[in-house]
Protein 1
Amino acid sequence: MAEKPYNCGIGPAFEVIGGKWKAVILWELNNQTRRFGELKRLVVGISEKMLIQQLRELEEDGLISRKMFNEIPPRVEYSTTSLGDSLNIALAPLADWGGNYAKLHDKK
Amino acid sequence: MAEKPYNCGIGPAFEVIGGKWKAVILWELNNQTRRFGELKRLVVGISEKMLIQQLRELEEDGLISRKMFNEIPPRVEYSTTSLGDSLNIALAPLADWGGNYAKLHDKK
DNA sequence: TAAGGTGCATACCAAAAGGTAAGAATTGGA
DNA sequence: TCCAATTCTTACCTTTTGGTATGCACCTTA
């Protein structure tokens, strides 16, 4: 998933938050800092490998930032950047739509 | 890409418009009916196979409708349903965001 | 001494998504 | 007669994505 050019913004947006997990992860970081373990619990069904991989890519794209504390056991906190915040705002209507759609299609 | 449950609407939404093409296709149908060939030209880079496949799935999910005319050569027109319209509305902020993001990252 | 909590990394594999190429059906027109 | 236009199908393949399993490093606590 990496093509150009696009005649609208949908293409670039999906390059950044496409895939199964990224939007959900970013959404969990909306307005709150989360530890790695927290995210693992919140994002139901994700494996550690995927979580790390997606967090790295979100970081590379400037959507989230990572803060590491030199403690034992280790502690790492993830939070959105201002760019990530702006994306979350843009995702909100889509999340609403998805919520309604899920209700209509009786997904428990 | 087909899991449940989700704790937010982002999951279901991405089940429906996830992937490389669907959102772009739906976007091209925003407020206008398009023929198959038109879409092929508008959605830059898509193959016929992908276009048909994605159109079929969008139809199954109730987002677009297909009108076939018994003419030779054949003519088929695609347009959004009201559900598809509501999704396009929800996608608009994301498209805006993507447009800005693309500018910032000098993707020509 | 052993086990557990944390945040990773890595190797290997399976599944899904996407791409390429070819062809089918129909009729009008050169 | 042969080709063009249009929508769609099919077979085959490559790439991407995601999943499972395992291990590491460090310290705390039992």
Protein 2
Amino acid sequence: MRISQLSTESGVPIPTIKYYLREGLLPQGEQTSATRAEYGPAHLRRLRLIRALLEVGRVPVAAIRTVIEAVEDERTDVHTMLGTAHYALASRPEPHADDEEWTRAREAVDRLIADLGWRVSPLAPGRDELTQTLVTLARLGMPATDADLLVYARTAMSLAHDHEMAKIPFDGPRDVAVETLVICTVMYGKAFDVFRRLAQESESARILEA
Amino acid sequence: MRISQLSTESGVPIPTIKYYLREGLLPQGEQTSATRAEYGPAHLRRLRLIRALLEVGRVPVAAIRTVIEAVEDERTDVHTMLGTAHYALASRPEPHADDEEWTRAREAVDRLIADLGWRVSPLAPGRDELTQTLVTLARLGMPATDADLLVYARTAMSLAHDHEMAKIPFDGPRDVAVETLVICTVMYGKAFDVFRRLAQESESARILEA
DNA sequence: AAGGCTGGATAGTTGAACTATCCACTAGGA
DNA sequence: TCCTAGTGGATAGTTCAACTATCCAGCCTT
């Protein structure tokens, strides 16, 4: 398959495909001569993944590249690779290192994760993201209660356990595992977010018509 | 309070505050002379809300303005106002109007919402967002099953019903209701997203150590 | 042998969210 | 009273991300 066919099949314009090639999101095609390269179904598949992450997940190009680089480095084991993917999907807030309020919130987050018995790296960016969210809620005058957080955490775990990690083929090839993980995280994350807003609208209608 | 104090209290630089004033995100201060205006605690509060939506929620400035305009238009009733806020928080995908696959997915979405008994406007952008997500999942070779979607939908409803809409003071002033809704939607949405990723990491660790 | 693609390189565009500069003016202290 | 830092308002510039456009030499088909 040549680049123009890749373009028509995927709906992505040629200059954009070239851009993804430059950025290392898409592997080079197999060079057949100085001015010709051959692309396969793997390229088409990768291209669809890129567009899905960009359009539905709003994942930045740089993060996508990070994931792809982790997959292509054969030395990393599967768990580390999945970790890298997860960390790339996070939106790191600036650390606010020397802030009293921040430090206390961060300790609360660490305690919560420990209490839940979750096995999460102390370096996981999610800890910082959660800290930022809690600090922000407090500053807005609506601090989250421990009880609320526990409900959210357990709900998240039940979805992750029963419907997401269960889908991931850990015994298959490594690239398929990461790809599945990323798709699950991003797409079902989006789906859940939309469902939540729809549910809120429905509740609002019910309450305000009474 | 003058603009410089607003800046130091909120941590937002003066030129940025001026930008928010220009963009209509922040109401003008009370003019006390040709070159002086007075800002109150409401401005500080608003500024914190703006930063929360931008930094934690990644809500675009244009969407924030839409919400604010709806609140300030006294003619709209509360339900419409909350609707406007919700719709502003959505990320409208382009409609793909004349696409067979899209149309079928859209019908499935409409059927699902009807089956759930949810009261959602047929114009709600969430319907399009969900359609896009399902089409994308199918194109990636991992179509969502009805059973999975139902679980996500019911889980979302239970959080929305018990922990989000229950918090909203429908009987108070209208601006407080919208503000609370937006904060709940965005901040707890973020919190849930982070919990989900942390839960996935924890599950991954558990599975791969066995 | 000619016209259309191709890969590769380089430069330009768009949109969002700021950021910087300028200016006339004025409040508030020396 | 005068001076100066700060103010509001306007306008223009910056940065970053994600493209998009143009150019060019070379091949491949017809």
